[in-house]
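Re: the 168-residue chain
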Amino acid sequence: MCRLFALTSEDPVSPMLAIKALDVMKEGHDGSGMGLLLQDLGGPFEEMKDAPILSGIFSEAGIRRLDLFMMDQGFLTKYKISLKVPKKPVEGIPKRDLYLIRAYELPEGWDNLDQEDISNRLMMLRLKIREMGEEKKDMIVFSFWPDTIMIKEIGDPMQLAEHLGLDR
């Protein structure tokens, strides 16, 4: 069964507020997972509103392939967060290598493009990275968009939040 919760705030807040709200509705939750969409980001992302942010799950080999691909496309990493999962597995949560959140500088020459063209190019790159991941099962891309982070996973939301260290 699906549980939804939306939270808006003038000031940045911890994603744990939304997770705790989902936990209140836990009765009947089937452990199918959660999706956490974060926008209008604060902290280090506050100064990078136009930088596309890639978020997803990657194996070590997938990260190496991603790095080569993004460099070939002219993207340079501006900022990154890696959510490393504990070695001890949690029942009901798939074992993953790394949840990656990476902000990129736009490639040289994109400065002269209009917003619609940039948006189309970002969408096509996201689809290409998704295709690459499906091919070798080493990348799952959730989003590649400015001022947006998406985290999705299977399992109980509170266990997932603890597992991923979202309270940090």
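The chain has four helices and six strands.
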